[in-house]
Amino acid sequence: GNPSGGGPLLNNYALTLLVLFFLQTRSPPVLPTVARLRDLAGDEDRAVVGGWDCSFPRDAAALEPSTNTANPCSLLADFFHVFGDFDFPGQVISLREGRALPLPPPAAPEAGEGLKLGPLNLQDPFELSHNVAANVNEKTASRFGRCCRDAAKYCRSLQYRQKSSKGRAWGLTRLFQPGAVEPGAVSAGAFLISIPLDAAGGSQPLCREPGGRGPWFWEVCAAIAFVLRDVLKCSCAAGKPPRAPSEDSRLPGDSAP
């Protein structure tokens, strides 16, 4: 299936298609267009699903090897550069054609009649009437472009290319820390969540507190709540506190509830 997502964020399918489209548009291309794959499909590869031509060669040996020799780090920086300045609302990204189509898209049935347009238009490569990013709103599309511009700028910095002598995050590590390369963002260290264990790495302080409900316990709860609420974007509601296990219910060797 082709999920459209449960909110305004880019889903994994849409993001994967953006990566594939980017690789199609390199010079020389890293990946062929879907139209080219259809042309290379043999009779045994023919497949029509729901009226859409989904044919492509099952044998990868039928594909011409790419002559692109760009290194992955260069491609990653180029990805951010391309989509940092991309006119998302004014074009339709087509993996079938391997290029951005102007608006309005062609009216031919196989070229996407009925395609729902919005702030980010990403046409499914087989079901051409489906915009896989139709759920994305203007705010999300704008922020995605801004994040790509910030990341492209970071990829040109010395911190991306050279290991920090001060033990700070650098290269890909810093790039993939949430918000770390956005202007005005807090320090990347703010995204490190410490669990307050004792110096030996055990959980004895918790056991020494009557009922296991001292400050240590609530610090751990706060850390977990941060992950659920601020990182995973879950809705957190107050519930009954967990019951402390009785002495006779503990297993031998248990060091903490």
From TrEMBL:
The lineage of its organism: Eukaryota, Metazoa, Chordata, Craniata, Vertebrata. One of its GO terms (biological process) is RNA 3'-end processing. It comes from the Eukaryota. InterPro entries: PAP_assoc. This is STPAP polymerase. One of its GO terms (cellular component) is nuclear speck. Residues 238-257 are annotated as: Disordered. It holds the Pfam family PAP_assoc. Residues 73-130 form the PAP-associated domain. Residues 1-32 form the signal peptide. Transmembrane segments: none annotated. One of its GO terms (molecular function) is poly(A) RNA polymerase activity. Keywords: Magnesium, Metal-binding, Signal, Transferase.
